[in-house]
């Protein structure tokens, strides 16, 4: 496809330099011909390649992107602006996001710093979770499609292979073979199952593996047989290729790369949580493994994969609701037995109807919360003391089938700290004790529970304090 000449005008847009010339599309900087229409941010125009030698997937993927991109919002996607006539000149005009792609980062940092890899992985998982909340699976996550912005936020690009739960899947209707980038495609995509949000989690695992080791876990297969190997094959453990890989990071990566979707993280929010809190990652055999399973174990996996029936997952948003991150705010002072009992009952009820949900138990303390010796007033001692109390309370919960962790935050503003924690960790539900005084008083006193309920980015359950009948006696 011939590049457009700078200065060309298309439907009121002036074309400038070419930003990217790829195998699927060309991308140009553009501006409005009329200054009065300037949206206040930079623009780019994406034009698909449609020469006689290009495959049908180019135009089909453009139709998919044209269908999905206008429905997306938030800081993790470029804003949609306009689209061209498919029969005359197809194009999409969108916001230009400054930054560099993850591919640039990988090229500049082979086997990068572990801490930085965790930060980037967390940002990518948060961006993917935002997409899943909008009922969209990306299905083509790779380094070139992840943009790292200067503020640390990750943005996702190119939705040509994506799937929206509420729109026709044009690629599934038009294509007869697996659609995706061979190095990053998930096992279920290979057999034609699209729309499972855990496919994106598999791709994030490939990204993390490459950032850590400098290699791809399954190589870059070019045949259908090579692709199908990942339905049963276990990649070389990262610690075998790089000795300084911590067990928690290998645990995370290999869990993402499980062939069976049900054995991966149930949501990108859970993955982001573990990357943000490595000290709370439970390490299993995956995290300590030094070599791939032997031939006998691999043969068993091959037999299992040969007889497996892949089923489509629920709608992404529905699946997220089934496995939420639940946060309980546990007070550490001026608290009655009734409050602690009521919180415990509320948490057990919430987890009982949500198998696979994650629990975060949080207490907020002030650095000057102690009035004893100078040593005991130190932040470290306070933190350890209250963390031990929080763990003791958590031990009384029914946590069968659930991941749980304890977190002590230090802040002078309890409500603000709880809201900030919920927002930063994609918490779906907050359980907090209700205020002890009546509604009339709460009209004049801005209590912590009321502030949390007002400002939280998620559902808040206010728990009324009560004791069982036998305790009331």
Automatic annotation (TrEMBL):
Pfam families per record: Pkinase, Usp
Annotated Protein kinase domain residues: 13-280
Transferase listed as a keyword: yes
Entry keywords, A to Z: ATP-binding, Kinase, Nucleotide-binding, Transferase
Gene3D superfamilies linked: HUPs, Phosphorylase Kinase, domain 1, Transferase(Phosphotransferase) domain 1
InterPro entries: Kinase-like_dom_sf, Prot_kinase_dom, Rossmann-like_a/b/a_fold, Ser/Thr_kinase_AS, UspA
Designated name of the protein: Protein kinase
A GO molecular function held by the record: ATP binding
